[in-house]
């Protein structure tokens, strides 16, 4: 499948065949330019998937001017720029001013060229998708991860994690302290999930909503560990008087003043294994969303709920 966006290249004419031969495997269309002004005009009118720019030639417009003009717009910050240059030219580059995302040194090698391009695209996608607070993968990565596991018919457990009484805490203590709670929960999840010898995954949907993916046979134990660590740590985020009382005075979702216990965590789990197979990402999310309502029925304590049909026979 050919991407709708292409790769824009400002390179020496005699090297165009090498780029054509190497980058055609990526599935992107290639757009070659030999003049800087036209190149910049095209970049701004039709942003590409990536830019490859030769720093060893001026092309009537200095490469640094092209990069600075292009990168000063927030619209184009997501477009990665790969610079081509000699070792001597690299030594003169001030990276804090040049704003490139990667570089390839001459002499050019096909394998390095394709792998550098793949790497810079992956890095750009991770950066764009990552949650700005926790730096964990966001919704795009979460969806792709779940869907891929389903399509590959892999066994896995999907957990949905949500906090109880978080809004009341935010209203009482402010968003800054609320953010610290979110980061603490992210640390608990990653520490527990990545302690497994098998591969795990933690993603941040947004706010106080997270997901994790673990081997199905480990899911219940992981949920218990998350609850144990969270319940042990979360009281330290309250002022001493509130901690002693075991509750705070704050507003509910209707704006009315009320009493709220120390925050707790709700976890919903569905397993794709044995005789129970998920068909698509939307089904998985629908199930854990419904299970989360059950887990949050009693918000005075931390709870986990597992989809019964996905329990072992």
Defining key terms:
single chain, 42% helix, Rossmann fold, 12 helices, Alpha-Beta Plaits, alpha/beta, 5-stranded parallel β-sheet, 12 strands, 5-stranded mixed β-sheet, 313 residues, elongated
Task: Please give the structural blueprint.
Layout: E1 7-10, H1 16-23, E2 30-33, H2 36-45, E3 50-54, H3 63-71, E4 81-85, H4 87-92, H5 95-98, E5 102-105, H6 110-129, H7 139-151, E6 156-164, H8 166-173, H9 175-193, E7 201-206, E8 209-214, H10 219-233, H11 240-245, E9 247-251, E10 257-261, E11 264-272, H12 281-295, E12 303-306
Parallel strand pairs: 1-2, 1-3, 3-4, 4-5, 11-12
Antiparallel strand pairs: 6-8, 6-11, 7-8, 9-10
Question: Helical segment tally?
Answer: 12
Query: SSE string, helix = H, strand = E?
Result: EHEHEHEHHEHHEHHEEHHEEEHE
Distance between the termini: 42 Å
Question: According to CATH, what is the class of the largest domain?
Answer: Alpha Beta
Strand line-up across the major sheet = 2-1-3-4-5
Describe the oligomeric state of these chains in a short phrase: single chain
| Helix/sheet category | alpha/beta
The CATH superfamily of the largest domain is identified as Reverse transcriptase/Diguanylate cyclase domain
Could you say which overall geometry the principal axes of the C-alpha atoms support?
elongated
Task: Estimate nothing, just give the exact number of structural domains.
Answer: 2
Low-pLDDT residue intervals, each spanning 5 or more residues: none
CATH topology (fold) name of the largest domain: Alpha-Beta Plaits
Strand composition percent: 15-25%
- How many beta-strand segments? 12
User: What about the largest sheet?
Assistant: 5 strands, parallel
Radius of gyration: 25 Å
Indicate the percent of residues in helices. Answer: 40-55%
């Amino acid at each position: 499948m050919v991407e709708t966006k292409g790769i824009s290249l400002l390179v020496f004419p005699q090297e165009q065949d090498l780029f054509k031969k190497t980058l055609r495997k990526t599935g992107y269309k290639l757009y070659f330019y030999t003049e800087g002004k036209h190149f910049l005009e095209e970049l701004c009118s039709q942003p590409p998937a990536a830019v490859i720019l030769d720093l060893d030639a001026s092309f009537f417009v200095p490469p640094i001017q092209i990069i600075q003009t292009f990168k000063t717009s927030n619209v184009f910050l997501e477009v990665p720029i790969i610079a081509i240059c000699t070792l001597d030219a690299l030594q003169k580059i001030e990276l804090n001013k040049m704003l490139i995302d990667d570089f390839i040194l001459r002499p050019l090698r096909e394998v390095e060229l394709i792998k550098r391009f793949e790497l810079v695209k992956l890095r750009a996608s991770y950066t764009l998708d990552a949650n700005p607070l926790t730096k964990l993968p966001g919704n795009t990565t979460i969806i792709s991860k779940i869907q891929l596991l389903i399509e590959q018919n892999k066994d896995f457990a999907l957990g949905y994690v949500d906090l109880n009484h978080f809004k009341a805490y935010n209203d009482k203590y402010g968003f800054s302290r609320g953010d610290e709670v979110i980061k603490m929960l992210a640390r608990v999840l990653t520490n527990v999930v990545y302690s497994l010898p098998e591969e795990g995954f933690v993603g941040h949907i947004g706010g106080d909503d997270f997901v994790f993916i673990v081997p199905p046979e480990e899911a219940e134990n992981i949920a218990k560990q998350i609850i144990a660590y969270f319940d042990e740590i979360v009281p330290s985020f309250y002022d001493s008087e509130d901690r002693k009382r075991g509750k705070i005075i704050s507003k509910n979702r209707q704006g009315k003043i009320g009493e709220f216990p120390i925050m707790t965590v709700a976890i919903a789990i569905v397993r794709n294994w044995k005789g129970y197979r998920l068909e698509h990402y939307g089904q998985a999310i629908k199930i854990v969303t419904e299970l989360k309502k059950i887990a949050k029925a009693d918000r005075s304590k931390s709870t986990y709920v597992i989809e019964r049909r996905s329990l072992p026979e």
